[in-house]
């Protein structure tokens, strides 16, 4: 099995990315699909595209996906209250939740921010953030999501990330797409993956926050989590 990663940018600003795990015979078709995705993204035409192909040499974790639940909201304000309620149910303080939305609304995030329960950011490089890599979804799950109208192509990518990070000990994830016209976001916890419509307005920036129970001085634990998020291979089914 091989991990394939694509990142596209313009003037050093992130435009799009993609990630999957495939068999050797699917490498060429997957790379072509990712190139097409890079050059047809609504956020613009990139001036730099990086595609990385690596053979996976360690055991792959096969994991059942988080349950998927969609919550329809009419406004951004209503949607954010829903998201906040879910985060509160996981023990998040009001000031920490407020800080999470502040980080996201600022935009220009290349990866996820690690935010602990005291509201401290733990990622070593705030511009780069933390990238969740070496993930994919099974063909059966992709078919289930699309044929049963459970979600979209974006849901397929997101459920893989959400399921992996929660399995690795992240308490909750808050995510808003950086696609300018895609307004559905989500909150993920051990109790499920909650798609929330209108979590942002069209044209708003996006971002991703991982809420973690790690002290800011526990460098070893922070480094281990980042290493696992970026390198442990998962296929979500």
TrEMBL record:
It catalyses: heptanedioate + ATP + CoA = 6-carboxyhexanoyl-CoA + AMP + diphosphate. GO terms for biological process: biotin biosynthetic process. Its cofactor is Mg(2+). Coiled coil: none annotated. The keyword Transcription does not apply. The keyword Magnesium applies. Pathway: Metabolic intermediate metabolism; pimeloyl-CoA biosynthesis; pimeloyl-CoA from pimelate: step 1/1. Keywords: ATP-binding, Biotin biosynthesis, Ligase, Magnesium, Nucleotide-binding. Its EC number is 6.2.1.14. One of its GO terms (molecular function) is 6-carboxyhexanoate-CoA ligase activity. Homodimer. Belongs to the BioW family. Catalyzes the transformation of pimelate into pimeloyl-CoA with concomitant hydrolysis of ATP to AMP. This is 6-carboxyhexanoate--CoA ligase. The lineage of its organism: Archaea, Methanobacteriati, Methanobacteriota, Methanomada group, Methanococci.
């Amino acid at each position: 099995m091989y991990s394939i990663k694509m990142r596209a940018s313009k003037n050093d600003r992130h435009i799009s990315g993609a990630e999957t795990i495939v068999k050797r015979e699917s490498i060429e078709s997957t790379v072509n699909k990712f190139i097409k995705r890079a050059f047809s993204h609504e956020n613009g035409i990139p001036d730099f595209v990086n595609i990385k192909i690596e053979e996976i040499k360690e055991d792959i974790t096969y994991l059942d996906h988080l349950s998927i639940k969609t919550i329809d909201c009419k406004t951004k304000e209503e949607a954010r209250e829903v998201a906040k309620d879910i985060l509160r149910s996981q023990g998040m303080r009001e000031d920490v939740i407020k800080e999470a939305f502040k980080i996201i609304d600022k935009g220009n995030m290349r990866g996820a921010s690690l935010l602990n329960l005291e509201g401290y950011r733990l990622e070593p490089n705030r511009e780069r953030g933390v990238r969740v890599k070496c993930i994919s979804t099974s063909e059966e799950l992709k078919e289930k999501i699309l044929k049963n109208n459970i979600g979209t192509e974006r849901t397929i990518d997101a459920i893989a990330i959400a399921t992996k990070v929660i399995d690795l000990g992240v308490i909750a994830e808050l995510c808003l797409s950086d696609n300018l016209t895609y307004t559905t976001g989500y909150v993920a916890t051990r109790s499920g993956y909650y798609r929330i419509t209108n979590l942002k307005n069209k044209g708003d920036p996006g971002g991703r926050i991982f809420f973690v129970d790690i002290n800011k001085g526990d460098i070893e634990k922070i480094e281990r989590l980042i290493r696992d998020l970026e390198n442990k291979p998962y296929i979500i089914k």
